[in-house]
């Protein structure tokens, strides 16, 4: 990250970035805050601000758009605290405040315009805004490849480009992303790199040198990372995941060690055509979500979701807790089956909802849908709890996330659309469309839209 360096004693001066990405207005200070200043960065929507204090103190920072509070946070005790201003819309003026026990500072910044790489992007929203602060997704548009956050009003409020060499076939660009509880962002890039980012664009950790290509999805919990991989075995593409701490792989898991691999579940569908030419795509893992050391892994062509302990220090690491199947007669029998005639077909993004349901995107056929499932592990049964129908076919990716207040966010990746729904089903109350050049968001790499709270 490039930052225009500003002396802490420059107060009352207008500061601008050399790249024209934004402008910084006057800053004032009082009491124990003896000086304050801000500077642009190489990102049009981010600024760094500094304070000088008579003595070390905790500082509360706030950013306002007009009278509306955009974001607030606290920096730890320091005599020279730094405030990181991000989550800001383009070409907009914001007021910032920093309050310590014995003094304060304030000023204004004005964001720049989005890079020209975004010129082909089409973004819009409609309906009543849900409670999330922003919505995170991956995007390939023009010369941009990376992550973006969009607010409920349909404005890009954060972006991070990644260095992509184009990957191989469907592995180009950002193939998976996630966000840790502390705000750390995770990307898988070109099927070969895992990169952790701060919201200001600093690289916190990077891992490379994997034995097999990474694909589709990654997960992060308390700084530890899990990433799906694939390898060819006897003419079939078989999936697994690696476990990474920082830049070091510490464990791996393969589906072939847990189930009998035989027959052909799906012919080569093009996804692995350039990586494993001629091989059958047997399971097609397409999501991994980790909570409290247990992963839910979705396998598309098996119509199955596995619950797996994934903490390498756990003595049961890798031994499936259960396998839920959405269709009878498939390659896996499963130990949890639907008791009410329900099910799912070619699903994506399996996770646990906040109220204990298993949530997933049922790609299905003519009416793809978000789905909440009640799972009774003791009885080995599953029943449908709620369904959120898209009214269209969404065959590529898709996701289901909780929203603040109890609603549900569902993504139809084919159309580059996300929509908010009441948890009991009902009808959609808000929607967002994000496309580039008339195609779905992210081209062939879109996975999901994730709600973000600062």
Q: What is the CATH class designation of the largest domain?
A: Mainly Beta
Rounded average pLDDT = 90
Name given to the CATH homologous superfamily of the largest domain: YVTN repeat-like/Quinoprotein amine dehydrogenase
Number of helices: 0
The structural domain count equals 2
Query: Describe the biggest sheet?
Result: 6 strands, antiparallel
Helix/strand structural class: mainly beta
Determine Rg (CA atoms, Å): 23 Å
Strand percentage lies at over 45%
| Unreliable parts | 1-20, 441-445
What is the second-level CATH architecture of the largest domain?
7 Propeller
Secondary structure: helix percent:
under 10%
Shape: globular
Order of neighbouring strands in the sheet with most strands: 1-2-9-8-5-6
| Strand elements, count | 37
């Amino acid at each position: 990250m490039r930052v225009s360096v500003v002396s802490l004693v420059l107060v009352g001066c207008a500061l601008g970035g050399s790249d024209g990405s934004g402008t910084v207005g006057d800053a004032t200070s009082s009491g124990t805050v003896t000086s304050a200043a801000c500077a642009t960065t190489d990102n049009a929507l981010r600024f760094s601000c500094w304070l000088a204090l008579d003595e070390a103190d905790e500082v509360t920072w706030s950013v306002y758009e007009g009278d509306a509070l955009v974001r607030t946070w606290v920096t730890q005790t320091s005599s020279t605290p730094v405030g990181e201003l991000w989550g800001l819309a383009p070409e907009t003026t914001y007021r910032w405040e920093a309050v310590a026990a014995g003094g304060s500072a304030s000023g204004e910044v004005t964001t720049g315009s989005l890079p020209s790489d975004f010129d082909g992007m089409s973004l819009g929203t409609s309906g009543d805004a849900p409670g999330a602060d922003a919505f995170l997704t991956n995007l390939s548009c023009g010369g941009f490849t990376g992550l973006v956050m969009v607010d409920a009003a349909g404005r890009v409020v954060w972006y991070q480009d990644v260095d992509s060499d184009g990957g191989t076939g469907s592995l180009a660009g950002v193939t998976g992303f996630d966000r840790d509880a502390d705000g750390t962002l995770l990307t898988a890039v070109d099927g070969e790199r895992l990169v952790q980012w701060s919201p200001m664009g600093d690289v916190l950790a990077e891992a490379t040198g994997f034995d097999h290509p990474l694909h589709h999805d990654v997960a992060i919990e308390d700084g530890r990372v899990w990433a799906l991989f694939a390898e060819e075995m006897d003419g079939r593409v078989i999936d697994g995941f690696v476990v990474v701490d920082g830049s070091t792989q510490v464990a791996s898991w393969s589906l072939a060690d847990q189930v009998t691999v035989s027959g052909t579940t799906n012919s080569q569908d093009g996804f692995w055509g350039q990586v494993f030419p001629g091989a059958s795509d047997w399971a097609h893992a397409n999501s991994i979500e980790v909570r409290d050391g247990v992963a839910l892994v979705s396998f598309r062509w098996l119509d199955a979701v596995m619950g797996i302990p994934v903490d390498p220090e756990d003595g049961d690491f890798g031994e499936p807790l259960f396998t839920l199947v959405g269709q009878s007669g498939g390659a896996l029998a499963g130990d949890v089956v639907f008791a009410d005639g329900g099910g799912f077909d070619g699903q994506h993004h399996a996770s646990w909802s906040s109220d204990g349901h298993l949530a997933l995107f049922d790609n299905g056929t003519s009416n793809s849908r978000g789905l909440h499932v009640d799972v009774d592990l003791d009885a080995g049964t599953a029943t449908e709890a709620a369904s959120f129908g898209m009214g269209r076919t969404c065959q590529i990716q898709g996701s289901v996330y909780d929203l603040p207040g109890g609603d549900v966010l569902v993504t139809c990746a084919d159309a580059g659309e996300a929509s908010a729904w009441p948890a009991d089903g009902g009808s959609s109350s808000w929607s967002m469309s994000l496309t580039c050049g008339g195609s779905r968001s992210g081209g062939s790499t879109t996975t999901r839209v994730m709600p973000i709270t600062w």
